[in-house]
Amino acid sequence: MKDKPSLQDCLQEYKTQLEQGIIQQAYRGLMQYMLELRTQFQKTFPDYEVPGNLYFGYMDMTYFAVIPDFLKQRKLKTAVVFLHEAFRFEAWLSGYNRQAQAAYWELIRTSRPGSYRLVPDPLKADAILEHVLVEEPDFNDPELLTDLIVKGTEAFILYIEQFFQAQE
To answer: Rounded to whole angstroms, how far apart are CA atoms 80 and 133?
Structure first.
């Protein structure tokens, strides 16, 4: 089994990659796309809260929140997430804090979450439910990509809303 590279080795490789300039170009392009995607959600769903914040992450994930009133009342939110290493878009149902997240995780767990993936432990995850929106995004067609993400997120939110309505 090969030893993990040292921090110095990793940083040397990072420096080498940065000197080529491609990583910066890709990262800037991805962040610009995420900002434009967030703006599209604000336009498409004016009744939803779509905060101005974009979580840039540590090159692990980048996301923004989409918060319909019915989720806000429960201290929940959805997030549109780009996972860097998996290189895909997902929609997540998350809590405002771990306490809210754990309580709703238990409710959803005992009621079966349908086709959406329930995280194994809500206290060790950033989500309650996860849903893959786009497995292999094609950034050469940003309009189609945006349409897939918006429609997939809308369906995810509708499922969650119907779930909570059925619980009442």
So the answer is: 9
What pTM was computed for the model? 0.92
Range of the domain at 105: 31-167
DSSP-derived pairing of the beta strands 129-134 and 117-118? antiparallel
**CA–CA dist 139, 59 (Å, integer):** 18
Residue 10 lies in a domain: no
Question: Is 105:130 a contact under the CB 8 Å cutoff?
Answer: no
Q: Give domain status of residue 1, yes or no.
A: no
| Strand, coil or helix: 36 | helix
The residues, ordered by sequence, that sit 6+ positions from 15 with a Cβ below 8 Å of its Cβ are: none
Tens-place pLDDT, residues 3-13? 899 999 999 99
SS3 of residue 56 by DSSP: coil
Nearest alpha carbon to residue 91 among 129, 57, 55: 129
